[in-house]
Amino acid sequence: MLDIIIIGAGPAGLTAAIYARRAAKSVLVLEAMSYGGQIINTPDIENYPVAAHISGFDFATKVYEQAKSLGAEFKFEKALEIKDNGSSKIVVTPKNQYEAKAVIIATGSQNRKLGVENEDRLTGRGVSYCATCDGAFFRSKNVAVVGGGNTALEDALYLADIADKVYLIHRRDEFRGEASTLEKLKQRDNVELVTSSRVTKLIADKRLQSVEITDNSGNSTELEVSGLFVAVGRIPENQSFSSVLELDSAGYAIAAENCRTKTPGIFVAGDNRVKDVRQLVTATADGAVAATEAVKFLNN
Q: Per the residue annotation, which of 3, 133, 259, 271 is the catalytic one?
C-alpha cells in the first residue's frame, strides 16, 4: 500500500509530491493529461518569487523533474473515483485501482470559456483568463473584459490602471458584481461599459487584433483590442470525488487552511478548493500545506 496518492500534476500536486517525498513517504501522482496544469499555457511568468521571467512550460518542467528526482512515481491515468475504506483509500482509474493511506486532490479548475471559434488557438496570444497574470503585457493598449460578476469588475478596474482603453462586455443589461466596484469603473474615463452584448467572433492573424460583439437585437460591432480577458467563471474538477468532499454551490471543495477535508485522510490543494486568491504562488503553497498535513496524518 502506498502512503500518499496525489491526483493532479499541476503546481499544487507537484509541490505536494516534493514535500511528501522529502518526508520519506511513498508517492504516486496520477494525472489525466500532462504535468503542469494550466500554467503551461502561460508564455511568461513575472509574478513568482525568484523566477522573474520563465515560461509556464519551463516552470512546470523544473518542478516535475524535481519531484521525479526525489522518487515520486507518475502515472498518466485519469482518476475516476475515490473509495473510502477508512484506514485506506482506493483511487480508481480506467486501467487500475491504487490503494493508499492518504489522498491529496489537486485537480485544479478549468476556465469557463466563451465557446467562440479560435478561442483555444488565441489563448496566450491575446486571449487570457487572468488579468493579474497577464495584464502587464497590455500596457498602453486597448483591451476588453467579458463578464458581469465581481471578478470581471475587478479585472476591468485593475486593467484600467494599465491599458489605454478597457471595454467591459456583459451579456445582460445589469452587472452582478458589487455596486461599489461598478461605481468606481463608471468614474474611469478609459472604461466603457458594453451591456446586452456578447463576443461572437475573434479576429486575428497570429495574435488577437479585434473582437466582434453582437447585441441582443442582432446588431454587430467590431472593437479593436489587443487583449481579451475572459471572466465568466471557472469549473472546479471535483465532481468525481463528491462522495468524499463537501462542495460549495459552485462545486469548489470546502476545506480549512490546513487543506483537510471532511473525510479523514483526504486533503485538497490548489484552485479546486474554496479560496480568495488563485495564483501560482498560492497553488504551490497549498501543495506544501496539504503534503505536510498528510504526513502528520500518517505519522499519527
A: 133
Q: State if pTM tops 0.85.
A: no
Contact in structure between 233 and 155 (CB atoms under 8 Å):
no
Summarised one tens digit per residue, pLDDT across range 98-112 is 999 999 999 998 888
Write the pLDDT tens digit of every residue in 218-274.
999 999 999 999 999 888 999 999 999 999 998 999 999 999 999 999 999 999 999
Q: Would the pLDDT of 33 be above 80?
A: yes
Q: What is the 3-state secondary structure (H, E, C) of 150-190?
A: HHHHHHHHHHHCCCCEEEEECCCCCCCCCHHHHHHHHCCCC
Greatest CA separation for the chain: 65
β-pairing, 81-84 with 89-92?
A: antiparallel
Q: Which of 3, 58, 84, 134 is catalytic?
A: 134
Catalytic residue among 3, 130, 271, 286: 130
Domains of the chain plus CATH, in order, are 2-110+234-299 (3.50.50.60), 113-230 (3.50.50.60)
- The yes-or-no answer on residue 134 being catalytic is yes
State yes or no: is 133 an active-site residue. yes
Task: Render pLDDT for 201-233 as a digit per residue (tens, 0 to 9).
Answer: 999 999 999 999 999 999 999 999 999 999 998
Q: Identify whether the C-beta of residue 239 lies closer than 8 Å to the C-beta of residue 220.
A: no
215 is annotated as an active-site residue: no
- In the numeric block, which cell numbers belong to residue 249? 454551490
Backbone angles phi, psi at 51, to 5 degrees: -85, 85
Measured distance CA(284)–CA(268) in Å, rounded: 12
